[in-house]
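Support reply, case 0932

Customer input (verbatim):
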Amino acid sequence: MKKILFFVFFTIFGLGVTKAQVGQFPQMNVPDHTPMMNSTWEAIDKMMYKVTYEGNKKVYTPSYPPALKSLENKIVELPGYLVPLNSGRTHSTFMLSVLPVMQCMFCGSNGIPPMVEIFMKDGSVKFTEEPIKVKGKMKFNPEPLKGNAEIQIIDAVLIK
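Our regenerated output:
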């Protein structure tokens, strides 16, 4: 009987603490995000890495599956969230992600979300936490260790 009373007491106490914590911050607006996943993002998300060895060193080389490979050198439209590579208000080169920059990129069980590097054709994009959409030519970088991301959108223009 003591165990049951002990359990009930701590359950009620725990619920009270939880409500008190939530109740302390009713004015906090926890941002929700719009899902950006579409067929292009799904193809990008299928990219894998081939692991080889040079001596004792592991070398990771991008491997592009057929669904993704079919998009190479094609004009694509890609919605997403701007992730700056440099400080400043405007960006002509940046990463585009399916998740907002304010959301932890490494949390959860699914690992790092897919991202692509964007190179604007003319001008730049002002930083925003709202989703944007770009249109440009998809290119692959087979040697990302030498610089830049594995998947890039070049000559991009902002459509939204």
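We compared this against your earlier run and they match. Two observations from our side: Residues 2-24 form the longest helix (23 residues). The longest strand covers residues 75-84. Please reopen the case if you see a mismatch on your end.
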